[in-house]
Amino acid sequence: MTDLSLTDPRVLRAIELVWKEAEALDAKDYKSWEQMYTDDGIYVIPIDPDTDDFASSLNMVYDDARMRRLRVQRMLQGYSPSAVAAARTVRVISRFTVQERTDTSVTLRSAQIVNAFKRNEFLTLGADLTHTIVFDDEGDDRIALKVIRLIDSEDAVSASGYLL
């Protein structure tokens, strides 16, 4: 049986990358965030809380490298509604569990709370996250998949003005 312990060094590397991603997003360092993904990495926010077939399902976001690059451009240009006076955010990511571990990757599940402040209003969003992190020998770990399952994904979701 494979040890899926949080003390495994690869698991700790994966958790550190998830936290580094959260820090980059809170700092609005979108260029660094974009570079954290593999070339074929997917960033997805499904509407159906139970789906794993993201390509055939309706999603709030389903970004490959090209779409992530365009999203980052919009966030940095300041012309889109999501970029104008972008919300300030603080993320808390916890409750890590290991779903799978191989010699080259780790898949983690976790819980995320995003606290956002924009236009004198606070908003709190909760989500279950899944990250698949891939490793290379040089320590250049990358995100191959990030799934954000908002707890209210089937309800109306207002424009957030930040990346989840």
How do you describe this structure in short?
The protein is built from three helices and six strands.
Characterization of this structure:
- The chain is α+β, with helices and mostly antiparallel strands and 164 residues long.
- The protein has one domain (9-150): Nuclear Transport Factor 2, Chain: A (Roll), CATH 3.10.450.50.
- 23% of the residues lie in helices and 40% in strands.
- It contains three helices and six strands, in the order ααββαββββ.
- It has a six-stranded mixed sheet with strand order 2-1-6-5-4-3.
- It is globular, with a radius of gyration of 16 Å.
- The mean pLDDT is 89.
Which helices and strands occur, and which strands form pairs?
Layout: H1 9-26, H2 30-35, E1 37-46, E2 59-63, H3 65-77, E3 88-101, E4 105-118, E5 121-134, E6 142-150
GO molecular function, one term: oxidoreductase activity
Protein name: 3-phenylpropionate/cinnamic acid dioxygenase small subunit
Pfam family, one: Ring_hydroxyl_B
